[in-house]
Design goal:
Layout lengths: L1 E9 L5 E10 L3 E6 L6 H8 L6 E6 L2 E2 L7 E4 L13 H6 L14 H13 L15 H15 L3 E5 L7 H16 L3 E5 L6 H4 L2 E6 L1 E7 H4 L2 H8 L14
Parallel strand pairs: 3-8, 3-9, 6-7, 7-8
Antiparallel strand pairs: 1-2, 1-4, 4-5, 9-10
Helix pairs in contact: 3-4, 4-5
This protein binds adenosine-5'-diphosphate (ADP) and magnesium ion.
């Protein structure tokens, strides 16, 4: 279970990026975090991961989150990742075994087997010896999900994993995440395509600096909450029209 109590984040001299965010999330689940640009979605993941300074408490399974960071696998928003880093696909996936193995330590053959199995899971085994710089965006995102698999973390955080990737990769990733959920994992995905929310997520968190709503998708992904997050001009299929 992840619990956040009174999370506040302010970047230097700016207005608050997150204000009094409180929630408890009980897994296994796939939870979508939605909200407009600049709503603090990435900041929320980073606060739980203790990457940004914040006030309030972040608790994982009853312990301070800072003591449980190794139980979280994290794929950051694509803008933050260096694609040109000279590393092969299998080396990139093997980084998920750190801290179990330790950086620059040799992997045992069992761990290479885990790397290979993870690459097969996401349909990327044929690319094991390629440089990551040779991959398409979707292939690279599948490799990053494979890295989460070998990490065997209880919690998986993905920040906008589907931006700019092909639909085949998106489908493979969602299928893999569904299996992970069935194995008991708790998965948080920052996502901006509202049309997929109902098919992808069993829970949804709606954020706009403050937490607007969190809960089962069918109860939470509602016009009233979306208007509070996005304003009253949002348009979602048949459901929400310019509601002036
Ligand atoms: P989202 O992921 O929902 O688009 P972010 O969490 O990235 O939103 O950002 C929330 C707010 O904090 C935005 O106003 C953004 O400009 C600001 N912000 C994010 N990161 C930084 C940073 N490193 N320094 C200063 N301001 C930041
Ligand atoms: Mg973001």
């Amino acid at each position: 279970m992840i619990t956040c109590e009174n999370i506040n984040v302010s970047y230097s001299n700016q207005a608050k990026a997150l204000e009094d965010v409180n929630f408890s999330l009980e897994g296994p689940t796939i939870t979508g975090i939605i909200g407009p640009n600049g709503a603090g979605k990435s900041t929320l993941l980073k606060a739980i991961l203790n990457i940004v300074p914040h006030n309030g408490n972040t608790v994982i399974d009853g312990q301070a989150a800072t003591k449980r960071l190794s139980s979280i696998a994290y794929v950051e928003q694509k803008s933050g990742i260096d694609f040109t880093f000279p590393i092969t696909v299998k080396e990139c996936v093997s980084l998920g075994t750190y801290p179990a193995v330790g950086l620059f330590k040799r992997l045992k053959s069992k761990q290479w087997e885990d790397v290979k199995a993870a690459l097969m899971e996401v349909g990327m085994e044929e690319y094991a010896d390629r440089q990551i710089s040779e991959l398409s965006g979707g292939q690279f995102q599948r490799v990053l999900v494979a890295r989460c698999l070998v990490q065997q973390a209880d919690y998986i955080f993905l920040d906008e994993p589907f931006v700019g990737i092909d639909s085949v990769s998106e489908g493979i990733i969602m299928q893999t995440l569904q299996q992970l959920k069935n194995q008991g994992k708790t998965i948080l995905i920052v996502h901006h395509d509202l049309s997929k929310v109902e098919s992808y997520f069993d829970q949804v968190m709606i954020l706009n600096k403050k937490l607007i709503a969190v809960g089962k998708t069918e109860e939470t992904f509602r016009k009233k909450n979306l208007i509070r997050a996005y304003g009253d001009t949002i348009f979602i299929g048949e459901e929400v029209r310019h509601a002036s």
